[in-house]
Design brief:
Elements (H helix, E strand, L loop, with lengths): L2 H17 L5 E3 L4 H18 L4 E3 L5 H9 L5 E5 H8 L8 H16 L1 E4 L8 E6 H6 L5 H7 L5 E3 L1 H5 L4 H7 L9 E2 L5 H6 L5 E5 L10 E3 L12 E6 H6 L3 H6 L7 H12 L5 H11 L1
Parallel strand pairs: 1-2, 6-7, 6-8
Antiparallel strand pairs: 3-10, 4-10, 5-8, 5-9
Helix pairs in contact: 2-14, 4-5
């Protein structure tokens, strides 16, 4: 290699080194709600910081997103407090929202130099869902009402809910619902179809499911606070906050701005009306 080649490769290496991490990178997981949240962050930060962040959306599950954040492939992404606690940080399950938030914040900072916070204003937790007309006819508003008011429930749940620690077995100990026959386990994409056709009376969904945006179904109140908190927050690398001094203030402007009803409607717009996540985020930010 001659002197000019040596100088060329040295310069190229230096340029690459200086360029790495020079722009902010936003990540998100691979489902509709995260697509929308990812677009929301990208567009909001582009406006606030004066440059469009890089994006790494559709990262797969929580493990892949968490690893990308730790290794610096992304600088921030939206995560749910209960998922961060158990799946990402491998901490014991807890039910108190303040305790979960504090534990996640401390562990992220001490282990990974990641700041946890910026509560967006909604939780995406499990929800037990009925047809609204049936709930009204039986005067059922809470899960405790369901235990008292009906003795032959037919339940539909996803495979994960049947097996996970905060799933069916633990649920029954707090809410001893009597079922007619075996629990019906099915693909999550089928649970609302089964509920709508009266094949089941009650299903284990999620609080931001698009099906809950309308009036046909109702999520029963978890009055005994069985389900762990899944508060939606942001996990942000501390070095990104140092590299971009305006980042913290920009993210502060999103704190508390979303509600579960808002996100249900967004998910419905994307799934039912086939609107793009980018257009949904843009419409929201235009009014922020």
């Amino acid at each position: 290699m001659d002197r000019r080649q040596t100088l060329y490769f040295a310069t190229a290496a230096l340029t690459a080194s200086c360029g790495a991490g020079s722009n902010l990178t936003v990540g998100a997981k691979n489902f509709t709600e995260q697509d929308i949240l990812g677009e929301l962050l990208i567009q909001h930060l582009a406006r606030q910081l004066g440059q469009t962040p890089n994006q790494r959306l559709h990262l797969g599950g929580s493990f892949l997103a968490h690893q990308a954040l730790i290794d610096g492939s992304i600088d921030l992404y939206p995560e749910y407090s209960g998922t961060a606690l158990t799946a990402c940080l491998k901490l014991p399950l807890a039910k108190d929202p303040a305790e979960v938030f504090s534990s996640v914040k401390q562990a992220y900072a001490s282990r990974h130099q990641i700041e946890w916070g910026w509560r967006l204003g909604f939780s995406n937790t499990f929800a037990m869902v009925m047809r609204r007309k049936q709930a009204e006819s039986l005067a059922i508003r809470t899960l405790s009402d369901a235990v008292k008011n009906k003795q032959d429930w037919s339940l539909g749940v996803g495979y994960e809910f049947e097996q996970r620690p905060d799933g069916w077995s633990s649920f029954q100990r707090v809410y001893p619902i009597k079922t007619s026959g075996n629990l019906r386990t099915m693909d999550l994409g089928l649970i609302y179809r089964a509920l709508d056709s009266s094949d089941v009376d009650l299903v284990a969904g999620n609080s931001t499911d698009p099906a809950l945006a309308g009036d046909r179904f109702i999520a029963l109140e978890d009055d005994q606070h069985f389900f762990p908190p899944y508060e939606t927050c942001l996990a942000v690398r501390q070095d990104a906050l140092a590299r971009f001094p305006a980042l913290r203030n920009a993210l502060d402007k999103l704190t508390g701005k979303l509600s579960v009803e808002q996100v249900r409607n967004w998910n419905a717009q994307a799934v039912v009306e086939k609107k793009s996540p980018a257009s949904i985020a843009s419409a929201f930010l235009a009014k922020l």
